[in-house]
Design goal:
The protein has about 675 residues and is an alpha/beta fold. It is built from 27 helices and 20 strands. The structure holds thiamine diphosphate (TPP) and magnesium ion.
């Protein structure tokens, strides 16, 4: 029976719905007041809607936040974090405790300023950067439909709910996200819009006059409005949203800071404590006579009952899972465990037997052929550059509105939307997403890459055309500062493989890094295979390793990445011919090198005076930051300007990134240093 045909909460319990919602309001304003920081307005305004959602609609079991078939709830308006903390606490989750809420925004509490998926089990996503929560929810909806079609509705059958604010709907990402959701017909995605017509600067009339419902409808969505303070009307709208086969936007017309007599309806409630006097007046206004942080037993009991509402369904689901023919495989995927063989060992052995001179983007495609055949949980895609990013393999059929079992997503020209959707997919679990675009457009994905890293999500970015080596498209398409700026991001594995073997190794690392996103920077141009000997170890996993050891007395160590490793080997040959012993270090991943023990790092990059051994870097991008590995007295070859439009070979010559340009400079430098010591 549809939920709305059940007896409304108000008739089932002596506790009024308004008072259930007031418990959220009181905890929110009290916690923000205690912290002397935070956002009371949003939770107070959306308390009624949230009470209906958690009380009657959301499928969850507070005693098992990891239940695979729970509905996913995303608080896209993350600044209203007290809303979710209050809801989780009231419904009886182990955390947050009342003590956690009293310590809102303090270092000891998991109730951080904004919701963080790694702090509380029941928080699905980290939100706060507006719009991204909604966009991640689209990815969750995709993962749900995909797993539903693979494993069946008996074990995968849940919805994704979002609470989004005016800000989320204004952000550009929102348009990319809803375009994708509308196109893919994600009817189980429901966005509850906190339409309070207020943002930080004041009325939304200051900055927008958009007909949002019309925009959503034009994008393939169902849209409906309700009075966000009328419980029956909220139910009506939610029922309509559930019944409609399209994704739904539910406009909930609310009053920000509802209940605060002099401040409600104004931006004053958005992001500041209400103040002692206003809080006292709000208690009066709401008829809430309880002390700060006090929730009366009958109200607490009703909220607890909501938290247990899903237990029966959970038990029934567990029974269905236990008798499901693919239980083990389902659990493997949901837990993110890889099969013993990801297909790469045999692929690498074949490369050693028959070396390939190919672009690393092509090498990535060949590696992916093995991976996607071995790992059915991988879901690929590209932001309209499939043929350039080489992300589609034979195993991957398109994932479409009519066939969610597909494993390839045509994201369209929506880089940010793609990256955010991949975050949602990874966080949902059961799938490992990878998606491609040009490295230069990592800028378009960057806010979502940052959230991949912060949320510890296994998302794999396939970023091709990784330098001026892409040639004729010119400076708009040639990344310069990108590698270094991405390396600056914590918990992101930026990998730039030098050849087909390293590319396979980097894929292996990316797949096995369950708590980090990875970004593969891949060449457009062909590269010779520099790794021709079999190794038992994945050398790229060291971050950097000695590819070639000095023959003559070692005076130079050249560190290079990706396409410049080939050049480094040529330079080394020139130097050896002059009696200058030269190591070549391939450094596919700075981050992993940093994690090696000191003795290993000292061995690869000996930290001695430059007149003894000079360190040199070659990378076709900014030299900014390479001092870290060359030292200030080392030499850095790169490009500290924008590129140009010409064939790749011409550009490498023009910018001095050739062995014949670099070797004499190194020799001169070494002579100068000798002069210093002589
Ligand atoms: C991408 C991004 N830009 C800016 C902010 C800062 N910020 C936080 S809330 C907010 C206003 C949001 O307005 P709305 O969604 O209507 O929230 P309400 O004031 O109604 O709670 C802004 C600009 C942010 N969190 N994320
Ligand atoms: Mg607002």
């Amino acid at each position: 029976m549809p939920i709305s045909e059940q007896t409304p909460i108000s008739e089932r319990t002596p506790v009024s719905e308004r008072n259930l919602a007031n418990a959220i309001r009181a905890l929110s304003m009290d916690a923000v007041q205690a912290a002397n920081s935070g956002h009371p307005g949003m939770p107070m305004g959306m308390a009624d809607v949230a009470t209906v959602l958690f009380g009657e609609y959301l499928k969850f079991d507070a005693s098992a936040p990891g239940w695979n078939d729970r509905d996913r709830f995303v608080l896209s308006a993350g600044h209203g974090s007290m809303l979710i903390y209050a809801l989780l606490h009231l419904t009886g989750h182990v955390r947050p405790t009342l003590g956690d809420i009293k310590n809102f925004r303090q270092i000891t509490s998991p109730c951080a300023g904004h919701p963080e998926n790694f702090m509380l089990d029941a928080i699905e996503t980290t939100t706060g950067p507006l719009g991204q929560g909604l966009a991640m929810a689209v990815g969750m909806g995709i993962a749900e439909r995909h797993l539903n079609s693979v494993f069946g509705g008996e074990i995968v059958d849940h919805r994704t709910w979002v609470i989004a604010g005016d800000g989320c709907l204004m952000e550009g990402i929102n348009h990319e996200a809803i375009g994708l959701a509308g196109h893919l017909g994600l009817g189980r995605l429901n966005v509850l819009w906190d339409s309070n017509k207020i943002t930080i600067d004041g009325s939304t009339e200051l900055s927008t006059s958009e007909d949002i419902l019309a925009r959503y409808r034009a994008t393939g969505w169902h849209a409906v409005s309700c009075d966000g303070h009328d419980f029956a009307d909220i139910r009506r709208a939610l029922d309509e949203a559930i019944a409609d086969p399209r994704p739904s936007l539910v406009e909930c017309k609310t009053v920000i800071g509802y209940g605060a007599p002099t401040k409600q309806g104004t931006s004053a409630t958005h992001g500041s404590p209400l103040g002692g006097d206003e809080i006292a007046a709000t208690r009066e206004e709401l008829g809430w006579s309880h002390a700060a942080f006090e929730v009366p037993n009958d109200i607490r009991a009703q909220w607890h009952a909501f938290g247990q509402r899903g237990q029966e369904e959970h038990t029934a689901w567990q029974k269905r899972l236990d008798s499901h023919g693919e239980k083990a495989e389902f659990q493997r995927r949901m837990e993110g465990r890889l099969p013993a063989d990801n297909g790469l060992a045999a692929h690498i052995a074949a490369l050693i037997d028959g070396p390939q001179t190919i672009a690393t983007r092509k090498a990535s495609e060949i590696a992916l052929e093995a991976i996607t055949a071995a790992l059915p949980e991988t879901i690929g895609g590209s932001a309209d550059l499939t043929g350039s990013n080489n992300t589609k393999t034979k195993a991957l059929k398109p994932l479409t509105k009519d066939d969610y079992s597909g494993r390839y997503i045509y994201y369209g020209i929506r880089e940010f939307g793609m990256a955010a959707a991949m975050n949602g997919m990874a966080l949902h679990g059961g799938v490992i997403p990878f998606g491609g675009t040009f490295l230069v457009f990592s800028d378009y994905c960057r806010p979502a890459i940052r959230l991949s890293a912060l949320q510890r999500a296994r998302v794999i970015y396939v970023m091709t055309h990784d330098s001026i080596g892409l040639g004729e498209d010119g400076p708009t398409h040639q990344p310069i500062e990108h590698l270094q700026s991405l390396r600056a991001m914590p918990n992101l594995l930026v990998m730039r493989p030098a050849d087909a073997v390293e590319t396979a190794e980097c894929w292996d690392i990316a797949l096995k890094s369950a708590n980090s996103p990875s970004l593969l920077a891949l060449s457009r141009q062909n590269l010779p295979q520099v790794r021709t000997k079999a190794t038992t170890e994945n050398l790229s996993a060291r971050g950097a390793y000695r590819l070639k050891a000095a023959e003559a007395n070692r005076r130079a160590v050249i560190i290079a990445t990706g396409s410049e490793v080939e050049i480094a080997l040529d330079v080394a040959a020139n130097l050896e011919a002059e009696g200058i012993g030269t190591d070549v270090v391939s450094m596919p991943c700075w981050e992993l090198f940093d994690q090696q023990e000191q003795s290993y790092r000292d061995d690869v990059l000996p930290d001695v005076m430059p007149h003894e051994i000079v360190r040199i870097s070659i990378e076709a991008g900014t030299t900014f930051g390479w001092e870290r590995h060359t030292g200030m007295r080392g030499l850095r070859f790169g490009l500290d300007r924008f590129g140009a439009s010409a064939p790749a070979k011409v550009l490498y010559e023009r910018f001095g990134l050739t062995a014949s340009a670099i070797a004499p400079k190194v020799i001169e430098h070494i002579k100068e240093l000798q002069g210093v010591t002589a």
